[in-house]
Design goal:
Elements lengths: L2 H18 L10 E5 L6 H15 L2 E5 L8 E6 L11 E5 L4 E6 L2 H14 L3 E2 L7 E2 L11 E5 L5 E6 L13 H12 L3 E2 L8 H7 L1 H6 L12 H4 L9 H11 L17 E4 L23 H19 L6 E7 L15 E5 L10 H9 L4 E7 L3 H4 L8 H13 L4 E6 L3 H17 L4 H12 L4 H12 L6 H15 L5 H24 L6 H14 L8 H13 L8 H11 L19 H14 L11 H7 L4 E3 L2 E7 L4 E7 L3 E10 L5 E7 L6 E5 L3 E8 L2 E9 L4 E8 L2 E6 L7 E2 L20 E4 L5 E7 L4 E3 L9 E6 L3 E7 L7 E6 L6 E3 L5 E3 L1 E3 L1
Parallel strand pairs: 1-2, 1-3, 3-5, 9-15, 11-12, 12-13, 13-14, 14-15
Antiparallel strand pairs: 4-5, 4-8, 6-7, 9-10, 16-35, 17-24, 17-26, 18-23, 18-25, 19-22, 19-24, 20-21, 20-23, 25-34, 27-32, 28-31, 28-33, 29-32, 30-31
Helix pairs in contact: 8-9, 15-16, 16-17, 16-21, 17-18, 17-21, 18-19, 19-20
Amino acid sequence: MSASYFHKKAIYSVTILFLCCGILLTAGAQSYSLFTPPDLSKELQQDFIYLLSQSTRENWQITTDDKKVKKGIVLKIANRPEFTTKESFHLQTDGNKILIISSASNEGLIFGFYKHLRLLGFKFYLPDELYTIIPSLAHPFGTKRIITDQPFLQIRDFFGTGGLGSGNSDPDKSVEKAWRLWKTRNGFGSAYQLAGHRGENFILENKKQLKQNPQWLVSPLTNNDHADQAIKLNYLNKNALNFYVDWTIASFTRKDYKTPPPNFTDLVSIEPSDGGGFLNNLPANAKKQLPSISDQVYGAANLAAEKLDQLFPNHPNIGVNLYAYSSHAEPPSFELHPRVFVQIIPYQYQNIAFGPSFVKLWAAKAKRFSLYDYFKYTDSQFDLPGGITLDETIKRLVHSVQNGSEGTLYETSLSKFATGIPLWVIGRYMADGNSDWQKNLDVLIQDLYPGSQQHIKELFNLFYANPSFTVNQLGNAVDLLQKATTGTKGKLIDSRLSELKQYLQFIHLVYQSRDLKNGSPDQRLLPVAQYAWQLYETRIVHSYRIMQLVSYAFLNSNQAEQKFQFYQQLHRDWFPETPKQKAAWNKIDQGVPRAETEKNFELLKGLYKTSVSPLSYNFNDVLREMPGKYKASKTIVLGGNSNARGYVGIYTEKPSTVKIKYVLTGEAPKVTISTVDKNYSAPSAITIDKTSGEMSLKLPAGETTVFMNAKAGTTYRMEIKTENGIFFFDGAPRGIMAFYKKLSDPYEAYTYDPHFYPSHLFMPKGITTVSYKAQLNTLQITSPTGTKPVTRLLQKEAGDFETREFDIKETEAGKIWKVLIPGNFNYSMLNIPNRYLLLEEK
């Protein structure tokens, strides 16, 4: 084991000893008492004592009798009429000797206690004492006051995809405990639990009855539990439906069931098993007018709610929950019972409407709902910077709450710098209602990196305000971190900066692993897995999941590969649940010594050069450049189907109306057209289900995106006309939809002709080098003077993707360029807005 590992373990041991000995800090220390409910976890009791003792430098002791607390803090269970939620709490302090927090639940007491500490100046920025700021206080009672409060949102939680496993690779579960404590300190949590695909349990627990009634299921049982648990209920069979509903709510009908207080929500899942296989999916039913899958699934939920009305007429807080997801993402044709709670998934696994419009559709149907959302989870982002920006994330969250959402559960990654800092900022809104994310991030930077805040702010802008952080920005990150480390900072700040250096090293290894020039898969991937293992205890990246993903890459290697058996062994070597005695990771010391960190950082400084940071522009810049050279196309003809959500952006200088002619094909075709402006101020959704027709959309001034979500089996074509707008695409439109010369063209007769296909982009002023990614180096780029720039290959990846760059002259920046593709290839700009305009050259 490395020296840093033993240092960490020593600190941990001293802390435990410090807590267990009652924290006698000074010989003459005053004695303060803390009373908590006896069933509050010892881990949290110890944390309370630790934080109070560190802050006041006084002796704090746990007491079992609240009446003996003459000087200290009392946390007690009590229900009050003003408690509207499970986590509501009442706080009373005399500002001198006594603080009393009461709540109907331990969760409310815990939230109230930590919120009080946060208001006193305690800061829990990341899951590590290195990032915990404990203020020095004369006492922890605050100013005299009496308040009743509660978390801003009832659901405000997250988890890391893949979790942290059995503990095989983390035997003391220190990583898991650190994340759990950090979440609790920052007010993450939930007032009630939402279970998932309980339909799978239904099949496995009721096989005897189901075998006797095969008509209750869509397909027969096979006696294979793994396959059978995915079989769907025949929702149109009344007996089957009643049996399923009664089984779902059985936990509420047991003799030992205790009805909850009116401010507690108690829910049981009625969500079907995952995947397809409903009656509607059978080929024999394709032409039958069956109720939609959503009507079937949510009809069952309504039936359960009606039965609960009969069982608990005076307890409307007892209900059922389910997802709005996949084949039942669409709102039903009827309103939902107030006892039905829906967890909607707006930004993935649905093809009904764009996220904000999807939220609005559901808000009109469900009395109670929350969100399940995805935030830079490891499988998609691999703990790299970039991805969805903090600004966009907060906009989505605020919009959902304004429309009635009770909160969000995020599927994300457990990584300090990829997700930890953004999650802390998100938590300030979910727990406390503070949506000023930029101010909160600035305070974090000032507190953690004094003397380096300007450079760290620029670095974090690269991480969290840049959706397309790429290898060519790594040089900028290295340069900013080098500037931030210049001069004497102090031990704490140096340690924090050192962890950022380790994070940049991890980013470097990931980018190296994707460059095919760097050798075979084992040569490229093993350094990533090894470094993730070294960083495991630091929580800098989600090491457990990174190691899993690397091992899965070896597991899924091509069987025709000459090294196939070798790769299968590497899978076993690096899978984090492989028994320790057989695992390769267990033979490598954890921790990265300071000397190794500095050596790696010096190598990064030599490997990566700085480039112009990602630049943006606004449409005023484009409009100034257009007169005499370009005009905006007034008509765009496009088409698509249910395989991908289509979209088109429209910029107008003033409120405007666009006209749409459309043609739909397919069995009972349907398309939902969503409009979302840049600030999410007026999202809308309109459904069309005729085979052809015309319609109009009113757009506000500024940028609006129009999304097309087609029902499965539906194909659409649209002719969109604007009098004073500019059509644009944020993201190359090649894979989203097809473009046509006229509406009557055959569906397969799409074109890449720049007169009809968005083929112009704007180079912001100040840009000197442009980087982009393209397939097979097929992108044809032309400057305003008609020259084609000479490009340089930076990186070659799987799928024939190449990252390239080229230099542009100062006189060619701030100009409109042409970008053409000769066929069905992918491409994207990396350090300028990946925005394509439909313009006509005069």
